[in-house]
Design goal:
Layout (H helix, E strand, L loop, with lengths): L13 E6 L10 H17 L2 E8 L3 E8 L4 H20 L12 E5 L1 H13 L1 H4 L14 H4 L12 H4 L5 H12 L5 H12 L3 E2 L2 H11 L15 H6 L2
Parallel strand pairs: 4-5
Antiparallel strand pairs: 1-3, 1-4, 2-3
Helix pairs in contact: 1-2
Length: about 240
């Protein structure tokens, strides 16, 4: 079956996940994490993509980005992917693919979900039981968004900047937000939307996108083995 084309629009945030092939590790040492972030900064600047949040896990990456053009994210991710695979293969004397096919992406309704996705990304190490709080994990934008570390890679989104009048107040409000109880249904919705390369947003937002793109943005739910228990349960 042919792959569905990506939903890409300028100035609309995207939640990105890129995984290691067969869940293999993509990062082993601090230098690996640091090199990926170096590439992310380099190519985000080159293709005019704003990076708002990130977390680098051992076998996958989460990013929250806003491109200035419809092709910016694809160009950036392709460039990072090629350079990082070459670096990784040389570093660990291996050959072949590193990433699990193409990256997953999801358009994000800023007004309703931007901060939720940012929190989701930065809490990933906590959900994975790697640490008990986001500040304990080194390779995350939480150190810029919620704490006092300056990360040149990060561009604050207007919704983040609207949390309070001063930088210190914004960080405090954001910390309280990240550490507040999280709705599990919200978490599942965010995860489902990005894994299906779909849209995370209200009906109004989806209608707006459909008008801009000239096509429906809700991914089809058809297909699959209709005799399987999994398929029947999905329809209940």
């Amino acid at each position: 079956m042919a792959r569905q084309p990506r939903l890409n629009l300028a100035d609309i945030p995207q939640h990105i996940i890129q995984r290691g092939n067969n869940k293999i590790n993509c990062f082993f040492h601090q230098r690996d994490f640091a090199y990926y972030l170096k590439l992310l900064k380099e190519y985000a600047d080159k293709f005019d993509v704003s990076v708002h949040a990130f977390v680098l896990m051992s076998n996958h990456v989460h990013l929250l980005l806003t491109p200035s053009s419809s092709c910016g994210v694809s160009q950036m991710m392709q460039s990072i992917g090629r350079c990082y695979v070459r670096y990784f293969n040389l570093s660990y004397e291996r050959t072949g693919t590193l990433w699990e096919g193409r990256y997953k992406s999801c358009l994000v309704d800023s007004e309703n979900y931007f901060l939720e996705v940012s929190r989701y990304i930065e809490l990933n190490p906590v959900r994975a039981n790697i640490c008990s709080s986001p500040e304990q994990y080194a390779w995350s934008s939480y150190h810029a968004n919620g704490l006092n570390k300056e990360i040149a890679l990060i561009t604050p989104h207007p919704l983040y900047e609207g949390l309070a009048q001063t930088k210190e107040q914004r960080k405090k409000v954001y910390r309280l937000f990240v550490n507040a109880p999280v709705d599990n249904e919200q978490t599942q919705l965010i995860r489902k939307s990005v894994n299906k390369d779909s849209v995370l947003g209200s009906a109004i937002f989806k209608t707006k996108l459909s008008s801009l793109l000239g096509k429906a943005v809700d991914r089809s739910t058809h297909g699959g083995d209709r005799k399987s228990a999994k398929f029947r349960n999905q329809r209940l």
